[in-house]
UniProtKB/TrEMBL annotation:
It comes from Lupinus angustifolius. This is Uncharacterized protein. Keywords: Signal. It comes from the Eukaryota. Residues 1-26 form the signal peptide.
Length: 113
């Protein structure tokens, strides 16, 4: 129990020192000069775009008719014999009242008001 009293504050102190060191490292990185990276080559910009193909060059004509959807054959109805009548056994009902136990009830009062 005693070690638990000191473990939480020591963890918080260690966390505070860790965050301070992160802050100092970040400040150090901000104060240093950035390394010289090579320049990115510039890409040539095209002056004109190539012409788009026209839509009117598509072939024109009549389309053949669509095939008809085949009909689903009807399934004949089957006659099953009636199921035998069986009675299920009676399931006892769950009582909804809690019985009182005389040992748990308070004793009757001896004086009447």
């Amino acid at each position: 129990m005693a070690s638990n009293k000191f473990s939480i504050p020591s963890f918080l102190i260690a966390l505070a020192f860790l965050s301070m060191s992160f802050t100092l490292e970040a400040r150090h990185l901000l104060q240093t000069n950035a390394p010289n990276f090579p320049n990115i080559p510039t890409l040539l910009k095209p002056t004109t775009l190539p012409p788009l193909p026209s839509i009117t060059t598509l072939p024109q004509g009549t389309l053949p008719p669509l095939p008809s959807i085949p009909t689903i054959p009807t399934i004949p109805k089957l006659n099953f014999p009636p199921l035998p009548s069986t009675s299920l056994p009676n399931i006892p009902s769950i009582p909804t009242t809690i019985p009182s136990f005389p040992s748990f009830s308070p004793p009757p009062s001896s004086s009447s008001p």
